[in-house]
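Page 47, continued from p. 46.
Same chain as before, 239 aa.
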Amino acid sequence: MVGVQVESALFFETPAGLFERVWRTYRPESKPPVIRVEFRPFAGATSTIRLQKNCLHVKISDLLESAPAPVLESLAYILVAKLLGKPVPRLHRHRYRLYLNRRDVRRNLNLLRQIRGRKQYLPAKGSAYDLEEIFQELNAKYFHGLLAQPELGWSESPSRSLLGHFDPAHNAIVISRALDSPEVPRLAVEYVLFHEMLHLRYPVEHSGARRRVHHAQFRLAEKEFPELAEAKRILKTLR
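Result:
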């Protein structure tokens, strides 16, 4: 009976009141700061928390404004725990991930990224390599030419930690400009682009709160790249 009362009480709690309650669970001995919670038109499910001059500033994506009260409670636990350097309770991490992995929520997230987010990258034809040319070669060789070409481009900054990524919301593959150099073997560029093309061919799998990016089918297909070991060896020397 107590559980029902606590659960229903969530629906009458203001966002600021919710964060104050969660704050007190971590700092019961101290007076909570002034709490200001805003729902902002972010491009995704972004949420931020900042403590400044005894005022706790919380900004949450407006996508979550209509989320069930227990989901907002879990988000509050996640944000406050991270701010205070405390472990995030497993229950709240699981509940929040479960909500974000719902099919309707993922669809809305992709729509928001398309509408609000700006994908910035350099043209596919770089100083050393042309990504469109390499895409077509890989498409014919490994995908029977059946992959529809997404947007292709080089990243604006030459990152060595993120060598490539596929953004399904913008249907774009972006490769790190650090690879666009005559000093980088073409094999390395081919493998990174091939890896991102596999993400296009084998989308992320969602099951409950689990999100599998490199699932079994993906890894099996990756092994079809004949010089996989050599390509990975080259990439390790570049980092």
